[in-house]
Design goal:
Blueprint: H1 2-7, H2 9-29, E1 42-48, H3 54-69, E2 75-83, E3 87-94
Antiparallel strand pairs: 1-3, 2-3
């Protein structure tokens, strides 16, 4: 049987290409439920306080927001930042499988 592939290398190449194409089509047909959630759910909270410095923004907006969000069920960790342009962001990362709504 292997002698056929040795004597006909073009036949062997065509068979290999057909097998690769069938594998590619099979991968595209797999349902997404077969793949796990890789990235955890993430919620971004943005706040704007025009004209405020980063320190004022942190004390008057970020700290109260962080205290309100802290302890939400399924929360893994929270990060925040404030810039001198009067904008702040809070990023809340939840455990896998947690509904971020």
């Amino acid at each position: 049987m292997f002698s056929k592939f040795i004597r006909r290398p073009v036949f062997a190449i065509v068979i290999s290409i057909v097998i690769l194409l069938m594998g590619g089509l099979a991968i595209l047909q797999l349902p997404t439920s077969q793949f796990p959630d890789i990235s955890p759910p993430l919620v971004m909270v943005s706040a704007s306080y025009p004209g405020a410095s980063a320190k004022v923004l942190t004390e008057s907006v970020l700290i109260p927001l962080e205290q309100a969000v802290n302890g939400v069920p399924g929360m893994k960790y929270m990060t925040s930042n404030a810039v001198s342009a009067g904008e702040a962001n809070i990023q809340i990362v939840f455990n896998l499988g947690t509904n971020p709504d």
